[in-house]
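User: Can you predict the 3D structure for this chain?
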Amino acid sequence: MRAKLIATLLCSVILTACSTKGTIPPSKHISQSGPLKVHPGLLGEAVPTELQEPAGDTKPVAKEAPAEEKAPVAKDSATLPDQRSIYFDYRSADIKADAEPILKAHVRYLAANPQARVRIEGNADERGTAERNKQLGAQRAENVRSALVAAGASEKQISVKSNGEAKPKASGHNEESWAENRRADFVY
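Assistant: Here is the predicted structure, written as structure tokens:
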């Protein structure tokens, strides 16, 4: 009873503190209404100027390999998709409908770049036994591989691996963290 009272008081204090801080201004990059929207760049489409980063923004740039080490890429090839994870429901290896644009973007990239190889790494959250999480990670990776092949990707370009719960993306012990950890990652 006392623990419930303390937890209730703590939650009410946190909620009060959060509500008095003000609101976070909406971002043009993430605010949306209605169903999930996918960035046009992931779909191989032209990116409208309002979604492009301003010229003043600096982002870390990876060093390029010397010209002789670079793999040749066709001029009209698809770019490597930015979205590198597909998320799953609890205890499920079924691919959600909102993952279809991500899958198609990776299929386009693999088709345009036959020399490219990708490893699909299946992951699970910390709940469940290590053995079950390893199986679930393998099922998730295999389902993504099957979906890529069904959409036209070459089987030779794709391998799978299960990490189980060994490589969490988020370290918390709550639903938000667990949802981040239930995923399959594209590793090129």
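The chain has four helices and four strands. The first strand starts at residue 85 and ends at 87.
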